[in-house]
Amino acid sequence: MEEGDRHWDLRGEGSQDSHPDSKEIDEAIAVYRQALAMTPDSLAVRWRLMRAIFFKGEYGTDDNERKKTIFDDGKAIGEEALRLIRKEASRRTGKSMDKAGPVDLGPVMSDSPDVVATFLWSSANWGEWAIAYGKFQAVRQGAATKIRDLAMAGSRMDPNYNEGGGYRILGRLYHQTPYVPFITGWASTKEAVVFLRRACEIGPHNFLNRLYLAEALWDLGRDSRKEAREVAEALIRDTPRPEFLIEDRWAREKAQKLIEATEKKN
Predict the structure, then answer these.
(1) Domains of the chain with CATH codes
(2) How confident is the model at residue 263 (pLDDT cuts 50, 70, 90)?
């Protein structure tokens, strides 16, 4: 697993702008797969593999069919991880939790940081899977509720994980999820802003927290658009962090596109 982590830490090597060289992330995925084959019940290996798969699908390709294949894989690994968590929760409680959702499993597994990471990287892969296959189709298959429950459970267990990662995913979900009667009536840009402000309080220097807040503020309405521009402009002026080089460059590019779009509408 340590070798996989080493390749993960080098994922920005040889990159061009926000486009990574695939060498290091492919090596990380290969090593994590080998580790998983030897220790199939390890959540620590599973969430690291899901994290690497997410990175490859989100930043490593612009081809949507390729994204579908990548996130199909990440989603499946997360579903198997959920089965393992249910099995351990059943052992701890002495009763079957084979059908329990993440929110119910969280309190039982509250002492496990690997469960937090598993929930959040699973929700991230589900989220990108939904985008690749189409938001409305994904909503009808229950993806939005799945993402919400995983991220909610993770944020309750450890709100600080990944610089407010649970709140970041919830904010993005509430903002991007289309309204479908009786299925996603909970989705709301106003609630999205609340979640994303929490994420920014926890991780004020996180580029994705600020990007998603700026985008949600812009869509919230005219009264919040001045703040949206200010958040995006501050993000563009900021320097990408070496340990998140690809992610931060990507966020800056998106923030620049938001500013350009706002200028066209003004």
Answers:
(1) 1-150 (1.25.40), 159-266 (1.25.40)
(2) confident
